[in-house]
Design goal:
This protein has 233 residues and is an alpha/beta fold. The chain contains 7 helices and 14 strands. 42% of the residues are buried. Its cofactor is Zn(2+).
């Protein structure tokens, strides 16, 4: 699987581009703030055509560029519980954050709802751009936070010891940490359930591509992440 990840201009939010190979349709995951030019370069270099935009959750640092990326019939996919966050995302965002963005970029922040939005549900399987993606609902960071699971790994890792599948974990699981639960829509108890019932059952052979920071593996997180210690699936 062709896998390209790069950080957004603000908050280091990871945007990922996934495709079976160069010259194919692709999936864009979490197009954050200021990613448009880098994304255009990636698509041109690898001759890729976006088939869909997958959103791990509705926070503005993960969805800000969704409408510029979604064009024509290209839809945005988000869990139904976070769908409301795509309706004028600036209104539900922290006002201080919006002011900071306007100061940093020297322009008034604007938002336009994507024309085509598809609601996701737990354990749904998506056949998009030649890739088979399973939706794992994992609330806690937001009501509709999800992870996207694929039974394949990025090109070049096929022979790496024990890495056999990939999960894009959004802001559920990071290397050495987890997503905050103190923001609007966050729920500590829900996050604990998600960690026990959704994250811990993932095989050690899972490559984790998080919404922020470096990639990791479930084997490493199971043994070192303090937020997973003491939990049992």
């Amino acid at each position: 699987m062709l896998t390209i990840g790069f950080p957004a201009a603000v908050f280091g939010t990871n945007c990922y581009v996934l495709a079976p190979d160069a010259g194919e349709e692709c999936l864009v995951v979490d197009p954050g703030i200021g990613i448009e030019e880098t994304l255009r370069q990636v698509l041109a270099e690898h001759r890729l055509r976006p088939a869909a935009v997958l959103l791990t959750h509705g926070h503005i640092d993960h969805v800000y560029s969704v409408t510029p990326v979604c064009g024509g019939e290209t839809a945005a996919y988000i869990h139904a519980d976070d769908r409301y966050r795509l309706h004028d995302a600036l209104t539900v965002a922290n006002p201080g954050l919006v002011a900071m963005l306007e100061q940093q970029f020297g322009a008034r922040a604007t938002w336009r709802d994507p024309e085509h939005v598809v609601d996701l549900k737990d354990r749904q399987r998506l056949d998009l751009a030649g890739l088979d993606v399973e939706v794992l609902h994992a609330p806690g960071h937001t009501e509709g936070s999800v992870m996207f699971s694929l039974e394949t790994v990025p090109d070049g890792l096929e022979e790496s010891a024990g890495v056999r599948s990939t999960v894009l974990s959004g802001d559920v699981l990071f290397a050495g940490s987890i997503g905050r639960t103190d923001l609007p829509g966050g729920d500590h108890a829900a996050m604990q359930r998600s960690l026990r019932e959704v994250v811990l059952p993932l095989p050690d052979t899972t490559l984790v591509l998080p919404g922020h920071g470096e990639a990791t593996t479930m084997q490493h997180e199971r043994s070192t992440n303090p937020y997973l210690q003491g939990l049992t699936a």
